[in-house]
Amino acid sequence: MKTSYKRLLQIISILLLLFIPWMPTWSCGPENAVDDYRFVMFEPQLSRFPGLGDLNYNYHLNVLRDGDPQKKDYQRNCREWQQELGGRLTDIYNIQYEMAPDDFLYAYRHHAWENSKGNSFLQALLKPANLSFLDYMAFAKQVEFSQFGDYDPWQTGDDNGGQEQAEILYSAGKQAFAKTTNTFLKERYAFQLEKLMYYGAGRRERDSLVPFYDRYLKGHATIVADWGLLYYANMQHNPLMATKLLCETFERSEEKKAFIYNKLRGKDLDTLLQREPNIPVAWFIRGLKNPGRALPVIQALHGIAPRSKYLPMLVVREVNKVEDWLMSPAVLGFNSRLKVNEYEMKRNRSDYTTPDTTYEYYAQKNRRNDLAYLRIVRGYLESIVSKADSNHILYALAVAHLYNMDGEYAKAAACLKNLDTRNNILFRRQWITEDILASMHIADIKSDSVKNVFGAQLNELIKLGASVSKPEFESEYDEDLVENGFSYLLLLLSRQYEKQQDIVTAGLLFQKANVLVNGYYGWTLDDDTTKISYRKIAYFDQHATPEDLERLLAFKRSKQHTAFEKFIMPKVWAPEDFYRDVQLSLLVRQQRFEEALMVAERMDKYFWRDNYEYSAYLTHKYIGSADFLVPGEKLKHASYTIASKRAILKDIVLLRDSLKLAPQNAVLYYRMGNALYNISFGGRCWMLANYGKGYGRSGDYDYRPGWQEYDHNELNRRHQANYYKCEAAMCMYRKALANGQGQKELCAKVLLMMSVCDKDRADYVRERKYSDLPIYKYNLAGDDAPYHSHYLDVLKKKYGHTNMYAESKMMCPDVH
N or C: which terminus of the chain carries fewer CB neighbours within 10 A? Predict the structure, then answer.
């Protein structure tokens, strides 16, 4: 099975995100398909040009792979043959385009047609009256073979042909062309000869290609005349005429569009349009080649051809640009991959102190400029919206979308009134999308009535073909394919419910959306049907409260659900114990250990042994021990026989209860400090509090800020005091010192652990510090000298004579 490009990237991302014990995981974020970083809600399919889907606004704007994926030209050719000879269209297509040249030519030479006896078109060709058509088909197949350098596929000898064989083929074609009197065959032989001339088989007569086309094909209403126009255009000596004819060929032929688009240069089109500004197709191609602001092209095209079939695609692309530039950073957290990076162009590379050297300065400046441009585009579209215009529904939908992007939701809703889209699936889908987008901001979305409307609309979108699934990519050039804006609609709806503090609805919608955002929410290769995966709990891990998890479980158990609730439910729920574990983790982060233990006691005692990554990252040694971090630490407590948060929490609660009974006991404070350190970022049982270890920063090559806290970024900000800065552990160690006077060996251990906590805190602060620097100075993050904790100085000064210190000098590089 061929592995898709996107799937390969996701596998690599997963491997990069494997949890590595004892050390930070520096990460740049996932390497996903480029258009996964882009916000797209205004559907590119509204352009009505499926054959030019590659040229919808995307990262690979300069490449058109196939201008005729629906094979319209081939079908047109088959219809012309059908009109001439009869036969079923499928049979004609089979002989023309699915039967290999060497297979056809072998059968032709040996009269071996047994494998195609039932083909109606072949039967027509084999009639005595039609043998000249059969001869032509054999000649055309041979020319087709010749395009790949094989001029004589059914004879032995020089299998690769060569110039002599090419000229023999050209000569045979000339004879057949001169002999035939049938107009249909005359045109087709003329096309084959023109092609041979162009590619060099008739090189002595190549200069006669232009007059030959003028005489035999120019002005003919047949597919071969339209195909032949490409070679005619390329043989023009006048570059301006060549560009004009290429534009004409682009309009007349689907198959040749890819070659023409990739060949034409923007400056050639500019020259043509300066001389002859009334060529709609030239404006269209020029607009397609502009990755920036192309409203002047739209205005020029509308001025000369207000009902042009090309206008929808240019309008859709312009709307897609604006929403990418504005919404990709705001909603997804990614900068536009296509936007000209003003930061890189205009920042002062030598000045690291002035405020305008930060990326944020230019990001805000770009946003203001883009928002102003959005309003200009919207104003122009409003000026041309007219029911008399064939594109008026598209323009009205675009205006509504731009109002929604601008936060003018009431105006967006007004644009949708009296707009009848029932007869067009794409228009109806976009209308519903805009209506939901406006309603989620101006209606009471927590009310049952609004949820009922949302449920009906979302289900209608599904029936109309909307989907949250991503296409499977077979190559990197398929990355620009985006099905529709349904996923982004669900993401925005999730954000609105989050603002209303309905975390259960928000989380299930977020999971349903399946959108890549700038944060770690787990990854899947396809539709996530795995019951135990971080993706199932990611949103709730990062945004929920313990009480939200109770509500989630109640929702899961409920037997009665509305249409909206049925829609947001996952296809596959995680086991209840997995959601309980999230609840437990949230309580641990808040140091509500007694409540966390109560949750753990309601769970299967083997849950942590058998699921997720718990077995690898839950300590099997006593939680109150510093273990190898402190020399001579002797464990008097039995190790945990299996991975068990319940067992660990029991010990933490026991320590806390013991301290209540013996509040002056320095040893208990030391052990409690160790326990709190062990469930912090640097400890050996961090998975009691977290599901992933690490905080990432951008690579030096990456000018898209935002990955600095890739792993669990929201969690990092809310729980950095205890998890990254070890403040809770340090509090216990200070109390151990205060109560441990006279216990020199113990105090030495405490100070050593305080130095460990201090260093972890310093590392985190340093990374956060450099994350906020201008991007070009970010690589200086590694230039700092190794951090030296002053607690080591205190350790040496006060307890340098202890056995613990002597052992530490031998075992610990920092102490040494």
Answer: N
d(CA 655, CA 662): 10
Contact 248, 279 (CB under 8 A): no
List Cβ neighbours of 324 (8 Å cut-off, separation of 6 or more): 38, 39, 40, 57, 336, 338, 339
> Using CA atoms, how far apart are residues 52 and 37, in angstroms rounded to an integer?
22
Question: What's the pLDDT score for residue 749?
Answer: 96
Report the half-sphere exposure of 51 (CA within 13 A, side-chain side). Answer: 18
Place of tokens 């300069």: 62
Say if CB 38 and CB 324 are below 8 A apart.
yes
Structure confidence by residue, pLDDT tens digits, 405-456: 999 999 999 999 989 999 999 999 999 999 999 999 999 999 999 999 999 9
Q: 3-state SS of 458-501?
A: HHHHHHCCCCCCCCCCCCHHHCCCCCCCHHHHHHHHHHHHHHCC
The dihedral region occupied by 549, where left means phi > 0, alpha psi between -120 and 50, and beta the remainder, is alpha
Of the candidates 618, 537, 649, which has an alpha carbon nearest to the alpha carbon of residue 582?
Answer: 537
State the DSSP code for 693: -
Mean pLDDT across 83-99: 96
Q: Among 3-12, 567-576, 599-608, where is mean pLDDT lowest? A: 3-12
> What is 16-31 written as a DSSP string?
HT---TTS--------
Distance CA 96, CA 77 (A): 9
DSSP single-letter state for residue 700: T
Task: State how far the Cα of 443 lies from the Cα of 292, in Å rounded to an integer.
Answer: 35
Instruction: Answer whether 0.70 is exceeded by the pTM.
Output: yes
Buried b (16+ CB within 10 A) or exposed e, 5-43: bbeebbeeeeeebebeeeebbebbbbebbebbbbbbbbb
Residue 4 binned pLDDT confidence (cut-offs 50, 70, 90): very low
Q: Is 220 helix (H, G, I), strand (E, B) or coil?
A: coil
Q: How far apart are CA 412 and CA 420, in angstroms?
A: 15
